[in-house]
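Tutorial handout. Part one gives the primary structure; part two gives the three-dimensional structure as tokens.
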Amino acid sequence: MKPLDVLSLSWAGFKSRKTRMALTALGIAIGVAAIIALVSQTAGFSNSIVSSLMTLGPDAIMVTSQSPRLPLTDADVAKMSQMPGVKVVVPMDLERVTVSTSEGDIGITLVGIDPNRIVDLLGSLRMASGELPPPAPVTALVLGSTLAEDAAASPGSQITLRDSKGRSITAYVTGVLDEYGQTVFMDVDDSAFLPIQATRRHMARRVYDAILVRSDYPETLADQLTTLYRGRARVISMKQLADVTSSISASMELLLGGIAGVSLLVASVSIVNIMLVSVMERTREIGIMKAVGFKDRHVMLLFLGESVIVGLMGSAVGLALGLAASYAMPALFGGMIKPPRGGPPAHRIISMVSYQPAVDPLLVLGSVALAILISVASALYPAYRAARLDPVRALRYE
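Part two.
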């Protein structure tokens, strides 16, 4: 029997039970869609986090104070500057302040930093307008793009910041940054950057909240700093954090893919059941086919052909549903969690929900191939039973 004849007869058998077969194919479709959607979300979310981490660069290490009683000081800056392989040491003040905008008073992050070192914190410097203030104790600000828009501020404008103790700073705006989005430690677009000399002068700061270090040997230096500041400061290596994130993501992809794959196993049970029912209903038809010369293998191929059609149809529908769900889920979940403006860095790591799904072509092909394989494997036993039917008994079956 020619392959086209097998497909033609299998298609005829499929159409004669199209509702039942369509529901069976739907089970396959749900499994394929779940695998593609869930795994692509995990991969996309992981890529977003790793990309955010790598904004600082793989050579960056962030040291943050764990307790106000054990702050970071100029002595720590000097100590880190002398360590082997260190290229840059950037001390920073991070202050929660409020500012009056068109939306009312909102909380933002005020970053005290040497203006010449903002590029080290952001990875690159992109100014929408204006320029950086001089590295001097002047009350001159650089604003993030969203903050500048909300406060209706532009270069030359004045803006008043208030801290939690009621102290206020009125500063003029020298520049506005281009849109950056969220990084691991802050939302750049909702932050204000003031020369660190000014924060130390106007807010009576004598210690630092964080120190950014860049090194030629980041992993080695991170281990040394962890040993040196154990219990006193938190040391975060961007490269090590990115590696851990990628490792966790790979495990999550495997876990979610396995959970979604369970639905394919459920669909396989449905295929076995439907095919066995089909064999019983078509017993007399099978007897007639054998009587006119169909061999056992021909009968078996007909039932396997129907399972291939079920697998192909289910995979096609599941592929469409999976891709649609993959691109719809970021838009759905992206608006459900919003980080507090000016909130602490820990909240921002959790709430970085702006991401794009990573749909791997190999994942798509693998899901489709797995669905077809499961469909065929599930039909093997029913097809074998159909092929082994005795033609005489089959013709007498009522």
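Part three, for discussion. The chain has 13 helices and ten strands. The CA atoms of residues 35 and 180 lie 32 Å apart.
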